Amino acid sequence: MKNKFKNKFYKILKKDNRLWDEKTKKLNETLLKDLIDKLDEKIIELLFGDKEMKEKFFIKVKDIFVLKQNDLKFFIDENKLDNSYTQYQNKIGLRVGNKLLSERNEVVLDWPFKDCVLEGGMTKEDQKRNEIFFNEVLAKDEIDRLYDSKALVNWKRYTVKGGEKVKELKRDKDGTIKENLIIKGNNLLALHSLKGQFAGKVKLIYIDPPYNIGKDDFGYNDNFNHSTWLTFMKNRLKIAHELLAKEGAIFVQIDHHEIAYLNTIMDEIFGSENKAQIISVKVSAASGFKAVNPGPIDVTEFILFYTKSKSNFGFHKNYIETGYHKNYNLYLENKGNIKNWKLLSLKDKVLKENGYKNEKELKKKFGAVSDLVLLRLISEFAFSHAKNVVSIRDLHKPSEKVRELQEKSRKDRNEIILYKKRDGSYAYLINGGALAFYSSKIKEIDGELKVTELLTNYWNHISWAGIAREGGVKLKNGKKPEKLIKQIIEVAGAKKNDIVLDFFSGSGTTCAVAHKLNIQYIGVEQLDYEGNNPESRLKEVIGDDQSGISKIVNWKGGGDFVYLELAKWNEEAKEKILKAKSLSELEKLFNELYEKYFLNYNVKTKEFKEKTIKEEGFKNLSLNKQKKLFVEMLDMNQMYVNFSERADKKYKLTKEDIALSEEFYNSK
Predict the structure, then answer these.
(1) What fold does the segment set 167-231+245-318+459-566 form as a domain?
(2) Contact call for residues 573 and 634 (beta carbons, < 8 A)
(3) How many Cβ atoms are within 10 Å of 176's Cβ, its own excluded?
(4) Interstrand relation of 499-502 and 520-525 (parallel, antiparallel or unpaired)
(5) Which residues contact 213 (CB under 8 A, 6 or more apart)?
(6) Looking at residues 165-170, what average pLDDT do you find?
(7) What's the CA gap between 123 and 636, in Å, rounded?
(8) Is the Cβ–Cβ distance between 429 and 409 less than 8 Å?
(9) Is the pLDDT of residue 120 over 50?
(10) Strand partners, 625
(11) Angle at 461 between CA 458 and CA 462, to 5 degrees
(12) Residue 296 contacts by C-beta under 8 Å, 6 or more apart in sequence?
């Protein structure tokens, strides 16, 4: 009878095509629970429409039926279609009855996800498709241990001469470390390890986290529900907030899938009052494979820009290069005494200066391209005679006195009226409008005078074409142009003595740009991109890399950075498990896990080793599920070596690594 009801239950829910996966022939129970939490209308309608479901999962309060959410979720847990995996969790000691240990009252759900939530233990980009997502839960009294500073190993300083030993760390007069740092390891733990040295000292944080779209090549497990993704982000953004200086800012790049959720969580952490802008960035053209997609073509991403404190952040205007402004179409002749000023058509002036009586004569000479030729001639002339090229602009909120002058200028249409503004500068009125000089558009950008316009919150001025090999490293689709990072650094106002942090470093674009601009940086990355890592990128930069912004900033190479790693322990074991190609490899590995690494105290090691692993049912589990069980047996609070345990001989840290870790944390 019970099985009949269960089968009917799943048959009804299969009608919702969001839940049923035709390839695996399974119901997405994680999504189902999420929809139940959200009181999804379609789920409620399906269950309420069946008499048996209505009686079991709804309670009538007066004339209203209320969904019993907890009862429904408990039923799902208790009646999984494939409960073989759960049975083995019970056998090994990771589950008691119908609940995970983490769901029992003995455990406080203060921190739903530990280690590198989305990545599991992945260290290589090409492991993505086989990666397992582990939902690890910590007891409250273990959180401090997770956040303890970690021991640091494999130190190396890179200069133009190559790699060399790190003898000491440079600090400023206040004791702050003044080194460019590239840190390999879990970014959450790295951020907590940085806190003691850099809390309140970082001017700019830029991150390009996983977008949670299930198909990008960024390398992280990029496909999971909103609440999981937000927990992952919230954990890291909270510590990022602590690292920011009071005059600092954070820029987080994302696409449309999670922007609303990310916006909400950043409002909570940084304060909605400190939200500066959402910047839209054009990242591609409406062509190629995108053009066949239904609906509007997706060509933008977004950057959420928050300050630590708006009152302390130094906002200033930024400018970008643009083309000729066509509304500047007048030429001011006889500039000198204002009484002799005369406004002419800029087009007529340019034609005359180039020996043409009129536009018809130019068209006769150049035919079909005459409009382009004329535009180029006007553009070049306007740039070189910017002080005499003007437009007539409407006045914005003129004072009563200025309105009187406006009326006077409308009556005397050709007379130019001079008046002094509140800031001490002068303005010129003619025919009810004000003269705007083209020279105000000419500004220096990257050492050259350019025609400019104010930077807005829509950025379409940065090309994404041809960036695949920038910096001598290649990262598919996740890579950002160096010019984008340079623009962000300029908006943030980061200068030579500031610190820039990127804890999703990828191929190291942020650090490369900061290096070329002579700004201190810290980059954190866990994945191994096999020769396309941040340290590879920075070696190229030191060796006179001429891609990206190099020519703009006249980069000639030089400088140095320090590479270091979080000291792994159970993380090593996890990597070994995930690399296993068969159950026999896992079986051989178990003795090493038991003898060398830390297993969860709940694990029934003897029963697992002597009985469970030999059972036919266990052998029939997929290799991924077998790996997942092995990883769940690891103590997730022992993934890396805590700094406080650096001298323990079982970790085999070198004297040099111990000494440098002590120097880093100022603990000698």
Answers:
(1) Rossmann fold (3.40.50)
(2) yes
(3) 15
(4) parallel
(5) 222, 223, 255, 257
(6) 95
(7) 17
(8) yes
(9) no
(10) none
(11) 110
(12) none
